[in-house]
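Here comes a specimen:
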Amino acid sequence: MKPIKLAIVAPCYNEEEMLPISAPRLMSLMREMIGDGLVAADSFLLFVNDGSRDSTWSIISRLHDENPMCHGLNLSRNVGHQNAIMAGMLTAVDAPESADAVITIDVDLQDPLECIPQMVKGCYEGYDVVYGVRTSRESDSFLKRFTAESFYKLQNHMGLKTIYNHADFRFMTRRVVEELARYEERNLYLRGIIPMIGFPSTRVEEVRERREAGETKYTVKKMLTLAFDGITSFSVKPIYMIMALGGIFVLIAIAIGIYVLVSLFNGTAVHGWASLILSIWLVGGIILIAVGLVGLYVGKVYIETKHRPRYHIEKHLT
């Protein structure tokens, strides 16, 4: 069987400390796979600079000048991790790159490189998608480990069909990426979209490693934003939950009304303001949450109807 032309897509955002470490390791791995006949000789790395404010693009440009295996994609501004991955994948399978398959991996290389040859072998076994699934998060802090695992469980509870403990380390053939391009939503959540495509898939187990240099740019705020985008982009269960909560409050209000009437008839009613004020604040807070949640869904619809581009490419080094 003819070796596939592989593109390893690595999104970067302010990674001037990590990129000089990860790029040589990725190049070495690619050379090994080419030597073993696992991938074609014209396979390449594609570093996607997501609007970095440091010297990340300068490093990518230098790597490209030193080694034609290193390609670069410079986005005109920061568009977010998911859109940067999408830009890299679509560019990799489009001319003149025309890769047969792509692997997406964060440039911090906390996902182990030894899983990449296993993913490629999965392609020869007939799989179009190979997910990297984390079996251990010992390298993460307790807070990140707890929030990540809670998030995956919450997704499943909300009805999202995602791969548990899978982030964005995955292998996809060209036809999967081309099908993915048909999903035109601006609020991208690849972990939810890709399992919906439905081509043959398998999993490779991995143990998440510690970051060797610099600090992660994926803050708790960004993680929570991604989590909320994922849930609201694929499920309307939060609205039903708010409606159910409203029904519970109506029942509580009826119970309180009965209690007030009984107190009036018994002459035990006490005039006070504490319970009234607490009720107003509580119910008012619930109403604000409900209105905000519905507003979020309306806002997402508003953004989608504009059909604005997800990203703009400032420069492409091939």
The chain has a mean pLDDT of 83.
